[in-house]
Amino acid sequence: MASPYNDIVLEHFKNPRNTGKIEDADGKATEGSPACGDMVSLYLKVDPETKIITDIKFESYGCASNIATGSIITELAKGKTIDEAKKITWKEASEALGGLPKIKTHCSVLAVEVLRSAIQNYEEKHGLVINKEDTTE
Ligand code: FES
Ligand code: FES
Known about the structure:
This protein is an alpha+beta fold and about 140 residues long. About 40% of the residues lie in helices and about 15% in strands. Helix 1 (about 5-15) crosses helix 2 and helix 2 crosses helix 5.
């Protein structure tokens, strides 16, 4: 049976970039999928001055779609500021991979969500989340 995945996806699945864990991460998150019970974690190092993502790693316990998207999303986010990285969409990640099988969309969405959650975790830890109440000052 032919693989449902294209060559770019398979290459990222077999040789995922930026895998592993950052022990002293500035921001991190784990997202789990209720659909399959799989999980993906993502770790960030952020330059305190420029807010540029200087290092990023992910660990996936998911399928090829999840692993390939984790790989591409770390490549897309590395070297960007957290504000730029927040705007990376699932569509961009999926296009960079040359397309993903429809049935596996949620697995790849999970990898995009974990990046946003890790950035949110960084912002919360560093007091960058402005509460609505505070904006009235
Ligand atoms: Fe679980 Fe895709 S089947 S992440
Ligand atoms: Fe697990 Fe897609 S089946 S996230």
